[in-house]
Structure formats: C-alpha cells, structure tokens
Design brief:
single chain; mainly alpha; Serine Threonine Protein Phosphatase 5, Tetratricopeptide repeat; 58% helix
Length: 351
C-alpha cells in the first residue's frame, strides 16, 4: 500500500479488491489498517458493485461486525451514498439480509449527518429506490420485518410506489401481513391506485403557480451571488434596517415632552411644543404631512431591506426561523410609528 497505493483499488479475477478479501477472511484489523492509509477504500466497488460497507451490512449483527461498520462510516461518511449493481444502498442490503441492528445504525447515521445538504441527503437516502423501484419501506414489508416498518414510520415517504405501481400498503395486503397493514393504515398510508405521482410531477413542471415561479427566480438569483457579495449585501441591508429603526426611536425634531410645574420656563415649554401640531405627550413634533411622508418612505425602505436579507439567506429551515423575527420586527416598526404619529386620529386611518 505504501509503495503502490493504486494496488488497493485493483480487483482480482474474481472481482475482489484487497479490502474485500480481508473482509471475507474476517481480518478486521487489516481492514482498519488499509482504511487508515486510504479512507476512500471504503468506497471501492468489487463484483456486482459491492463496497466494503455493503459487505459488512450483509455479514451479520455480532458486536465485532457492528463495530467495524461504525468504524467504516466514521472513516468515510460518503460511503453511505454508494449503491451496488442493483441500485441498492447499504440500507437495502442490511434489510434484505435481516441485519436489523446494522439497519438501525445506518438510519441513525443518515439522520445525524451535519453538512450543507444534510436534509436533502437524508430524504434522498431514506427514500432511495433500487432497480425494481423498491424503497427500504418496500423491502421491510416484503421481508415481513415489523420492527423495521415501525422504525421507518414518520421517517420515509410511506406512499412511494415501485415499478409495479405498488406502495408498501399494497404489498402488505398482497402478502397477508395484517400487523404491518394496520401500522401503515394508522400512518395514513395509501394504495398505489390512490397515489398519482405523475400528476403532481406534471403539475409542478407546468409552473401553474405564480408563487412557484417567484420562488424559482429567487433561488436562481441567490445562487448567482458569490459568498463575498452575499456578505457585503447582508451588511448593507442590516445597516439600512438599523438606521431606519432609529427614526422611530429618535424621530426628526424629537417627541413632545410632558410639561413641568417646576421652573420659570415650564409654561413656555408646554406652549412651544403644543404649537408644533402635537396633541399628546410622546408624539412627534412634526406636522402630519411631513411625518406621513417620512414614515411611508421608511416603510418601503425597511420592507426592501428585510426582503433583501431574507432573499440572501440560504434555503434551510434555520432561514425560516430567522425570517419570523424579521417579520415581527417590521410589525413592531409599524406599531411604533403609529404610537408617535402626531395626530392619533389620523394614525388610526393609516393603521
């Protein structure tokens, strides 16, 4: 391996690489040594596209084998995406071979992946279809594996259809599996005849929804912005939002102050502030028209800045969490402007 690393990828006449042969002969420590030198060997495909990870998934659920499975996943996380010649993932293979312990570890591993496309990767792997169109839920049903079916509820698309247009519920009925059928019905699973995937895909491609078009355009624009440009625009938008909100905290001319009986100039102060078209303490000293013009311009600017911030954020669940406070912030600005409006009767008309 050190003198000729490429030999680690060579297959013999039977279609096995050195790491495959080590696994077949239960030389687990040798497997670990090979992986230490080159972690990508976990993804080398032998006969029928079987990788070392696939081999371990079909080799049993004893502690030593499970430990090696975890070692391989930790060494090469990307190996979870590999498929064999039948388009089966490691999850398919573990279920086909009745290795429930390995299957649960693999599902847990997929759900714990932390990277930029983690959510889409999780959906893709858990709903992956083999060459017959069967998902892992189909395989669990075909093997009458009640534990696996229970484990997959709320984790996969329970209405996915295989190439025979059958869902897991169809298979449970055809194989007379009442317990699994009950579990699927409880989860509101449907039969294949009631699921029209083609209609949904066709409707999506026709772009009948204006909202879908807007979302696509926004996503395209977002992807065209470089990381450096994104950071610069976010800073500018944040400064705009901060500056606009200051006009509510400190509006031009200030706010009407309450009169005080202490001091010789108290009456003059009250008369001066009253003469600036203010009718209540805490309202702006500006006239209605001037204040309305400033406020409306600020509304538009603030809305555009918040829209820019939302549009520049990546399309993840965390972005939705951030968007909610931004909306609440905009509402807070509107309410604050209404509170300091010079004429409260006119403020009611505007708000």
């Amino acid at each position: 391996m050190r003198l000729k690393p490429s030999f680690g990828w060579k297959l013999n006449e039977q279609g096995f690489s050195p790491i495959h042969l080590a696994l077949q002969n239960n030389q687990h420590n040798l497997v670990r040594r090979l992986v230490e030198i080159n972690k990508d060997l976990v993804r080398v495909k032998g006969r029928e596209g079987v990788t070392p990870l696939h081999f371990v998934c079909q080799s049993g659920d004893d502690n030593e084998n499970i430990t090696l499975l975890i070692d391989l996943l930790e060494a090469c996380p990307g190996s979870i995406e590999d498929v064999n010649m039948k388009n089966e993932t490691a999850l398919h293979i573990s279920l086909i071979n009745g290795n429930l312990r390995a299957f649960q570890i693999l599902v847990g591993w997929v759900r714990s992946i932390v990277r930029e496309d983690a959510y889409s990767l999780e959906r893709s792997i858990l709903n992956w279809k083999d060459s017959d169109g069967n998902t892992i839920l189909h395989i669990a049903t075909l093997n009458a594996n009640q534990q696996a079916v229970d484990f997959l509820m709320k984790r996969v698309n329970i209405n996915a259809k295989n190439l025979e247009n059958r869902t897991a519920l169809d298979l449970a009925e055809a194989l007379a599996l009442p317990t699994i059928k009950k579990t699927l019905l409880k989860a509101k699973a449907k039969r294949g005849a009631a699921v029209d995937d083609n209609f949904n895909r066709e409707d999506k491609l026709k772009f009948n929804s204006l909202l879908s078009l807007l979302l696509i355009r926004a996503d395209r624009n977002r992807r065209q912005v470089s990381e450096q440009q994104r950071n610069a625009l976010m800073v500018v938008a944040t400064l705009i939002v901060t500056a606009i909100y200051q006009t509510v905290l400190s509006p031009p001319g200030g706010l009407t102050q309450g009169g005080s009986d202490n001091g010789p100039n108290s009456n003059n102060l009250v008369n001066a502030t009253s003469s600036l078209n203010s009718t209540a303490v805490g309202t702006s000293v500006l006239s209605d028209n001037v204040f309305a013009t400033i406020t409306m311009l600020n509304y538009v600017t603030l809305l555009l800045a918040i829209t820019m911030i939302t549009g520049l954020m990546p399309t993840t669940k965390s972005s939705i969490v951030v968007s909610i406070p931004l909306v609440m912030f905009f509402i807070s600005y509107i309410v604050s402007a209404a509170v300091i409006w010079p004429s409260q009767s006119r403020a009611k008309i505007w708000f």
